[in-house]
Design a protein that fits this description.
Elements lengths: L1 H20 E14 L2 E12 L5 E8 L3 E11 L5 E12 L2 H6 L4 H17 L4 H6 L1 H16 L4 E12 L2 H96 L3 H16 L13 H12 E3 L5 E3 L6 H8 L13 H15 L17 H8 L6
Antiparallel strand pairs: 1-2, 1-3, 4-5, 5-6, 7-8
Helix pairs in contact: 3-5, 6-9, 6-10, 10-11
Main location: membrane
Pfam families: Band_7 (PF01145)
InterPro entries: Band7/mec-2_domain, Band_7, Band_7/SPFH_dom_sf, Band_7/stomatin-like_CS, Stomatin_HflK_fam
Length: about 400
């Protein structure tokens, strides 16, 4: 029985010695080993052997990068306003021995140094600068903390201001100011948009009026040219009509005169024709009464004496002229083939066709200038200005 107890004590002692000798450190951690109360070495991830009952692990340190968020700190700005600032510090322990032996609690040390540095930095800024200068504050905080915690074996990798909360009254004032600024910008943008719209509208109206004026100008020029051409053609037609009427009247008179000479009309025939025409003269609506002057007989007597020949009994008798060959030829000539020819003059037809071509042509975009003939084709101008040879 005594042997069994001794064996159990030996096994328990062996297990205890083995437990004190072998130490397993996980990856991402470091352990501080002391020998008889004095620092000897730092061990990290893996299995390490210790001298049992002489070496011991003082502390285990997490060597991974850590993110610590500190509670809001009341900070007074340069313009005497109190703001609450939350900070987030990212750091990593590079030297576990310094973190254990250099400071009692490095988390509290980082918090206090960050608060002191934050108050120093923000105390020199106004509220507006504090709200708009986060990068400057973060950079200064990181520099101050990194310089202060280097002796503790820490490396400050990043410092961020998580929130900056001014007092409620200041927040309300800031919101009102921001609302006023937004309304101001909205009014400015609205005014700018309205101004731009008015400018564009005025430019469009200006362009429309310019184009309308150009169109009216072109239309007036074309209308003037058309009126000029119409007047010229009308004058040409009236001149040709009067000329043809005069020619026809001359031909008719010549024809009647030649016919009278060729048939040798006697006074008896003329008197008969005169009597036939009297009823026709009386058919007019205003021909209700005829007045014959008393000297009318004397005038006929003088006419008979001038044209007649006095015979042996003292009576003046009219003797027709002798027939001549020229009068008979004129009376018997039949040269009225082209009297009723309605075909237009080729030159006038060409001028009308050229004017129609110009009228159907679109108006040019460029101004025509002072010369109205720029809107007319050279063929129309040549056809209009060509001298008339119908005379």
């Amino acid at each position: 029985m005594t042997g069994l107890i001794f064996l159990a004590v030996v096994v328990a002692l062996a297990v205890l010695i083995l437990a004190k000798t072998i130490v397993v450190i996980p990856q991402g951690e470091a352990a501080i080993v002391e020998r008889l109360g004095r620092y000897t070495r730092t061990i990290s991830g893996g299995i390490s052997l210790l001298v049992p009952f002489i070496d011991r692990v003082r502390a285990r340190i997490d060597t991974r990068e850590r993110v610590v968020s500190f509670p809001p700190q009341a900070v007074i700005t340069q313009d005497n306003l109190t703001v609450a600032i939350d900070t987030v510090v990212t750091f990593q322990i590079n030297d576990p021995a310094r973190a254990i032996y250099g400071v009692d609690n490095y988390i509290v040390g980082v918090e206090q140094i960050s608060v002191a540095t934050l108050r120093d930095v923000v105390g020199g800024m106004t509220l507006e600068e504090t709200l708009t200068s986060r990068e400057v504050i973060n950079r200064r905080l990181r520099g101050e903390l990194d310089a202060a915690t280097t002796k503790w074996g820490l490396r400050i990798s990043r410092v961020e201001l998580k929130a900056i909360d001014p007092p409620p009254s200041i927040q309300q004032s800031m919101e009102m100011q921001m609302k006023a600024d937004r309304e101001k910008r909205a009014m400015i943008l609205t005014a700018e948009g309205r101004r731009e719209s008015d400018i564009r509208t005025a430019e469009g109206e200006k362009q429309a009026k310019i184009l309308a004026a150009e169109g009216e100008k072109h239309a007036a020029i074309l209308a003037a040219e058309a009126e000029r051409e119409a007047t010229i053609l009308k004058a040409e037609g009236e001149r040709a009509a009067r000329y043809l009427a005069a020619q026809g009247e001359a031909k008719a008179i010549q024809k009647v005169n030649a016919a009278i000479k060729s048939v040798q009309v006697t006074p008896e025939v003329l008197a008969y024709q005169y009597l036939e025409k009297l009823p026709q003269l009386a058919q007019g609506e205003a021909s209700t009464m005829w007045m014959i002057p008393s000297q009318f007989g004397d005038a006929l007597e003088d006419f008979a004496k001038a044209l007649g020949k006095r015979d042996e009994d003292g009576v003046f008798r009219y003797e027709p002229a002798q027939r001549d060959e020229r009068s008979e030829n004129i009376a018997n000539a039949d040269d009225h083939e082209d009297w009723f020819n309605t075909q237009s003059n080729p030159e006038i037809a060409a001028a009308v066709a050229a004017a129609n071509a110009v009228a159907n042509k679109p108006v040019d975009e460029e101004p025509l200038g002072t010369g109205a003939k720029k809107a007319i084709s050279p063929e129309a101008t040549a056809a209009i200005e060509q001298p008339d040879t119908t005379d």
